[in-house]
Amino acid sequence: MASDIADESGTWQRALTGDGTAFAALFREHQGRVYRRALSVVGDVHGAEDVTSAVFFELWRKRRSVRLVNGTVLPWLLVTTVNLARNHRRGSLRYRDLIASLPRQESVNAETVAIANIETQALGVRLSEVLVRVSRSDIALLVLTALDGLSIADAATALGIRPGTARMRLKRARERLQESLAHDQHAAGQPATEGGSS
Q: How confident is the model over 44-57, as a mean pLDDT?
């Protein structure tokens, strides 16, 4: 799809001077990508909308320190989206855990609801345990390169690190994730094996 902004660095310079039309043009250009990235992390439409609004608020608030990569603000937006979406997701999980812990009236489907809640919480715990082993900047590197298609050099520029450092971090982050997920799958398979033999 062709860009609606002929010269984004020029548009960004006008936005820096307080030109609301220029900032609105940047919003229209990148809102879709930011929303899709937020939705992929948060997992619900309303949360993704909240994160998208917060990202563009942060773009305005931190506009003096924002770095363009290849003349576009998109990599900065995507890094910020991942960070805000992860924070939002953690907050939502804590809220759901709190709601789930409140006493409920017994119903016909109480057992089904309880099993679903336990499975959801177990999945959330496994994902949290895997992600906690990877630093925020390494998660941002993984998202920018694997999901958003940026080169390692562009992702490194967006994060303010050297490309060589980014390559090394990316390799270590992938290895850590593969090791953690393999360990978790093995651990998850153990009870089923023992249960099947009894």
A: 92
Tell me, what's the pLDDT at 126? 59
Q: Residue 24 sits in a domain of what CATH number? A: 1.10.1740.10
In a domain, 71, yes or no: yes
Q: Is the residue at 198 inside a domain? A: no
CA distance 166 to 152: 7
For the entire predicted model, the pTM comes to: 0.55
Q: What is the dihedral of CA 114, 118, 124, 129, to 10 degrees?
A: 160
Per the rule left: phi > 0, alpha: psi between -120 and 50, beta: everything else, 149 is left
Mean of pLDDT over the chain? 78
Residue 93, amino acid: L
pLDDT above 70 (res 84): yes
Say how many domains are in the chain. Answer: 1
Q: Could you tell me the residue range of the domain that residue 95 belongs to?
A: 8-185
